[in-house]
Design brief:
Blueprint (H helix, E strand, L loop, with lengths): L10 E2 L21 E5 L3 E3 L3 E8 L4 E7 L5 E8 L4 E7 L7 E8 L5 E10 L6 E13 L2 E12 L4 E13 L5 E12 L4 E10 L7 E13 L6 E9 L7 E9 L6 E12 L5 E9 L8 E6 L13 E11 L1
Length: 323
């Protein structure tokens, strides 16, 4: 995937329209020479709605909409036939739900607007931090800090896309001593993403807590397929057994049809009490046909975690699939 539209619920948002009108519509949505003849009271995300406009003359008519979130959409142009212009509007899967307004313009015949209600079945993704933690390892020249954050998508039917995560490293006086920013391609609906990594400092790292900021860049109806990570182990460093050397395991392609081309891996490590004490990242690049597996090793970031406190790890794989 490159770096870095849930329980059904009716949600209502507003649509405001684009484009300049050549005639001022009144409260009924009429204008001189043009009027809406057929508009549904409600248009459902992902479904089709039929829009009909009547005009007093033959003309090319254009229909557009502006959604409550400010997004605009051109719904097409058509030539009137028998004094009517007709559109089939397929409401976007992630269109802003709610009270809406359509705008039709038919050249010299005039223009008109009409309110519609867009009904949403897509619950917008909301990412919450359910746990976090870190470990510090002094070096001969500087300090390494390994961190782990658990991010859960609370939506049951919308994947969060291009999730931007800022991890701030905070000192006792509240000031920041460091910041790391990453973009996660996707966090699927209803799933928890184990986000791990590390940051190096040229001197001591007096970190007392983490501050995590998350911003969702996009959404789609639930469709992201996640490979299976199994047989996960935390292994000490061969050169210095006091610290973690790697997190390893297996990736299984359980997709029924597609090949798994590449897998990005992120791990979070826990102590025996279940507290997060760090994390790391890695990747696996073997091409896996459906039903096959490969070994993986994560080393980046985990070497600042004390081995004595590392009890287990959770690994989140994100795969790129090809036919």
């Amino acid at each position: 995937m490159p770096r870095k539209s849930y329980l059904t619920a009716a949600v209502v948002l507003a649509l405001v329209v684009a484009g300049g009108a050549s005639a001022r519509p009144d409260a009924s949505g009429r204008a001189e020479g043009i009027r809406f003849a057929s508009v549904p009271r409600a248009a459902v995300q992902g479904k089709e709605a039929r829009i009909v406009v009547r005009t007093s003359r033959r003309a090319v008519c254009r229909l557009s909409a502006r959604y409550a979130d400010g997004a605009t959409e051109f719904l097409g142009a058509t030539v009137t036939s028998g004094g009517r212009a007709t559109w089939t509007w397929r409401v976007g899967e992630v269109a802003a739900a709610g009270r809406a307004r359509l705008h039709a313009s038919c050249g010299r015949a005039g223009s008109a607007s009409r309110w519609v209600t867009v009904v949403g079945s897509l619950i917008p993704p909301k990412i919450v931090v359910t746990d976090q933690g870190f470990s510090i390892r002094p070096r001969f020249s500087g300090t390494n800090v390994s961190f782990g954050v658990l991010l859960r998508n609370q939506s049951t039917n919308a994947d969060a896309l291009e999730v931007y995560v800022i991890v701030n490293f905070v000192m006792a006086d509240g000031h920041l001593v460091g910041t790391r920013a990453d973009t996660i391609d996707a966090i699927p609906a209803g799933r928890t993403h184990a986000h791990g990594g590390s940051l190096s400092f040229p001197g001591p790292a007096p970190v007392v807590r983490l501050e995590v900021v998350v911003k969702v860049g996009g959404r789609q109806r639930r469709s992201v397929h996640v490979p299976v990570a199994s047989n996960i182990n935390v292994v000490p460093d061969r050169r210095d057994a006091a610290w973690v050397g790697e997190v390893n395991g297996e990736i299984i392609n359980d997709h029924p049809q597609l090949n798994l081309q590449r897998t990005e891996l992120s791990a979070v490590v826990f102590d025996p009490a279940g507290n997060v004490i760090g994390g790391g990242t890695g990747s696996a690049s073997a091409l896996l046909p459906p039903g096959t597996r490969q070994a993986f090793v994560i080393r980046s970031g985990v070497d600042a975690i004390p081995w004595v406190g590392a009890a287990r790890a959770v690994v989140t794989p994100l795969g790129t699939y090809v036919p």
